[in-house]
Amino acid sequence: IKIGNNEQDTRNILYSHKYKCTISHFQFRFATWKDIVMMVVGSVCALVHGAASPLMLLVYGMMTNTFVDYEREVQELKDPNKTCNNNTIYWVNGTVYETDENTTLYCGVDIEAQMTLFAYYYVGIGFGVLIVSYFQIAFWVTAAAKQTQRIRKTYFRKVMRMEIGWFDCNSVGELNTRISDDINKINSAIADQVSIFIERISTFIFGFMVGFIGGWKLTLVVIAVSPLIGIGAGLMAMAVARLTGRELKAYAKAGAVADEVLSSIRTVAAFGGEEKEAERYDRNLVEAQNWGVKRGTIIGVFQGYLWCIIFLCYGLAFWYGSKLVIDTKEMTAGTLIQVFFGVLMAAMNLGQASPCLEAFASGRAAAKSIFETIDREPEIDCLSEEGHKLDKVKGDIEFHNITFYYPSRPDVKILDNLSMQIRAGETTAFVGPSGSGKSTTVQLIQRFYDPKEGTVTLDGHDIRTLNIQWLRSLIGIVEQEPVLFATTIAENIRFGRPGVTMEDIIQAAKEANAYNFIMELPQKFETMVGEGGGQMSGGQKQRIAIARALIRNPKILLLDMATSALDNESEAVVQEALDNVRTGRTTISIAHRLSTIRNADVIIGFEHGQAVERGTHSDLLGKQGVYFTLVTLQSQGQTNTTSGRIHVVCQSSLRLRSWSQLSNDFVPDALSGSLKIQRNDAEEHVEPAPVARILKYNQQEWPYMLLGSLGAAVNGSVNPVYAILFSQILGTFAIQDLNEQRKQINGICVLFCVVAVASFISQFLQGYSFAKSGELLTRRLRKVGFQAMLKQEIGWFDNPINSPGALTTRLATDASMVQGATGSQIGMIVNSVTSIGVSFIIAFYFSWKLTLVILCFLPLIGLSGVFQAKMLTGFANEDKKAMEEAGQVSSEALANIRTIAGLAKESSFVDSYEQKLESPYKSAKKKANIYGLCFGFAQCVIFMAYAASFRYGGFLVRAEGLQYMFVFRVISAVVISGTALGRASSFTPDYAKAKTAAAQFFKLLDRVPKISISQSDGEKWENFRGEIHFLNCKFTYPTRPDTQVLKGLRVSVKPGQTLAFVGSSGCGKSTSVQLLERFYDPDEGQVVIDGVPSHSVNVPFLRSQIGIVSQEPVLFDCSIAENIQYGDNTRSVSMEEIIEASKKAYLHDFVMTLPDKYETQVGAQGSQLSRGQKQRIAIARAIVRNPKILLLDEATSALDTESEKTVQTALDEARKGRTCIVIAHRLSTIQTADIIAVMSHGAVIEQGTHDKLMAKRGAYYKLVTTGAPIS
């Protein structure tokens, strides 16, 4: 009998106690009447399907009675004095034979004819099930696909109509997951799950009905015991949930450590902290491991308890049932079977219905947030047709008493009663400190937001009365970080205005000064710009964006810091392009570099959200207000560096630098979409790892593994033993002697109790042992994996696939997946194998012929088992793949919503999204039919198998005198092994996953780093002097192989000298420092240290001689003292040394003012401290090393003037007696250097002392006197 007594069901029973919730109508609000008809028909089919199994029990019961009668007859007729006449047994002498109870005995059962009839019943039910279950699934899945499609379209269209303020309050990442995962959740809640739920509930009801009709007393007894199972399952679910939570929490700590270390890998490498970090990580893993073991043990205990109760329940039911059959004759043997299995089936199906409830609950939760968005009316609807369109536009813009707050920060007043006017055709420049509301005014002109109070007017019309799409089509905007879309250059420019010709595009490109560089590219205008324009440099992106703005032929041009992110050279080019196109348009320019806005017609000064002054450059200098302060601030510092350079350069360089070096750490949302896809490709080429190697890591736990396997073997043989006992009971009903009958039945019930106890012990053993060995393995793998990561060279971390986030997830998931391939998995396999083995031995021993007949069906039954397992997980995963393309469109659209709104291109993105949804939708509809067929087939196989095997069994009973109980024994044994097979194979996907995960893991462990950091490789020497020569170094970053950063760098510095690198950003200054640290090795040429080429020096030794202070120092989340101690990880640094170092770094006095002094926690990444304080801690950390070489990479550029002075003094102090390499943007800081090397495009163009270079009147002189670009 197919009863789901396997792990899956116990797991499902657990769920039923977790979720008690209703399904509300509002999940189906997108259904058309066709969908509703489909769903109703599907539900009716599901109800009918649910009744099939209980129906089968009725047939089964009648069949059992037939067998029992036949067996009785055969036994009676063994006596040669009896004969069968007119279906009654007579003595040979003609009198009727009466039993002890004075009843006559029926005879002449035509067993084969009866069996043929039953076989027809079975086949009939089977075909019914096939048809009904096909419709049940196909209808529901198709209806769900249609509704989901509708929800997706409506949702995306609605999101694209929302005003910008709404996007400020909802993160793009969250919206992306909503579009993909949440809608998938709704889908699974309204698809096959509903029909399966209906089917299971219907089986539950009909099962009980069959039970009560057959015999109400026995039914009540069985029901009375079932709460014990329920309670156990409920407790287990609670305990497991709680322990899993604890384990995850404990692991989260370790994960945080890993994340922190991997994010700041350069610092860890520079200070040689790899071992220390691996230890810290391992310490945090212990706790997680203990919780995991506890969880495994508890699962073992509860599983044991459940099985124990189930077997005791069998014993009780059969004992009481047999009493009813023999003593009171209320039931026949057939009804006993019918009642018992009816109730069991009902209980199991109730248990299996509960995961569906879980799907409904998560579907409803997901639907709530989706429908809330769909029902929300946007405050500024960009797709609406309403509003005026003016015939003629001059371009006068006025602001009347405007007050404004951002919706995401309603407590901060950005604009405070701002009034100003911008005249048509003039260039107006906005200046003011950051945060004074300049960019906000630009966004109000585009009507991204509506002001709280006041109005913005265009030619005297309130812009709220104008049509939005039309208004935005008048405006061209060039932002600070322009957004390009992942298509060709020509397409990007075409986004500016629909339906332009190629000539227009070329014209616009020429005006934007972009034509020349585009024509130099191999594919010219057809060049792909990459995700977010990633293949282009900043200047190129800016110029494409300008071309895009110009092709609109806008009346109003908004330039928001359009050149601030560029280096000097590209800035000049872009600035020139902008100056050409400003003429005759109303232009608003926001800039931080005052040099770029001197020649504006009007300059408006902003402060605290108000326009405080307006006039020309010379007017405002005379007024000595905001503008004057800004100009003087910028030209202060060194009188001989020109105005407009200082805080700007540092700002722009900071921005560029952070991009060039860290571009891998913060990949914006738009990018992460494309990276995911790359990552998938990378995964597919991994050969699965050999299991033997995984097990090797688990070698030390072999005693646990052995114990667990023993337990699993016992568990596996429990089910076949149950088949023997069950058929033995049926056999006893045919025994003549009542006392003998009772004796046998009691014996069997005692055996049931023995099996129950054995099962408890073995389940516990299996659970505990595999949990223990598995958790130890996970911990070992995580530690080994983490150490392997820290051993890799820095270039490896530059690859986006190895970003800190990806690596920490890999540590978390891969290790636990690999555990899946060993621990519980081995248990599962041993369990299934013994189950199958024992079943076959039993079956072949009792009747090999019948066994062979059933074996023909076994593969099919196994397949149906696999399919059932697949049903539970649902087909959601397969649809995810298909959604990938549509997902790219939506994530790109949401990430760049401002640009899209500015270009008024929402509708084209909506169209493209809907188009991309078509193919997944078609395949979903096709899948519904295939899925329905498979499901129907899987459901009806078992009926066919029964029909064939019982019919043949009947033949054997008559022809070969096989005992009927052997027929039952063989059939149930084989069916049990079939379900075991299905179960084993349902675990194969996990297993395959585990093997790929392991393969990735081993790939990481086997990777030989290009730069070894082991203590033994390479040379060391005694008195390290610190003499450095760069000899003709050429270098390209491994992640950007197309741009050569160093093109033959030659420069040398003697011990104790200070070398300063100067040059525009991106010319290779920082790169040279990284070569010296051996984060990378040069492609050609050498770095020679004390006469030894760097690639043959021992890396830890070399790094221990170098102290580094970088622009953004990385601190770890521990105390100030520990951060300073980090400077030397080879020994423990005493408190005296720490204080000594921090005095030198001008840090001591500040620390003493803190309440916890040196024990103050600095927070994650040092967030509790100001920049100047972090810088000084970093300097102290470098001093503690007592390095021979000190590297200062723009160590003061990010500071304000005051802290800069302090830090500068600290640095001058630290430089004494050491070889020092300084990189600086502010020329004032390096005039005292022994050698100043001016770099351009990866090579040194001139070097010497400050005075020499000034006398030479070359590039350096130009830089100092004018701040002109170094070209």
Strand content: 5-15%
- Provide the helix percentage: 55-70%
Biggest sheet record: 6 strands, mixed
Strand order of the largest sheet: 8-9-10-5-11-12
Please count the beta strands (DSSP E, at least 2 residues each): 22
Name of the CATH class of the domain at 216-322 and 688-847 and 963-1010? Mainly Alpha
Shape: elongated
**CATH-defined architecture of the domain at 216-322 and 688-847 and 963-1010:** Up-down Bundle
**Category by helix and strand content:** alpha/beta
In angstroms, what is the radius of gyration? 40 Å
User: Which fold name corresponds to the CATH topology of the domain at 216-322 and 688-847 and 963-1010?
Assistant: ABC transporter transmembrane region fold
Poorly predicted regions are 1-25, 636-684
Query: Helix tally?
Result: 41
CATH homologous superfamily of the domain at 216-322 and 688-847 and 963-1010?
ABC transporter type 1, transmembrane domain
Average pLDDT number: 76
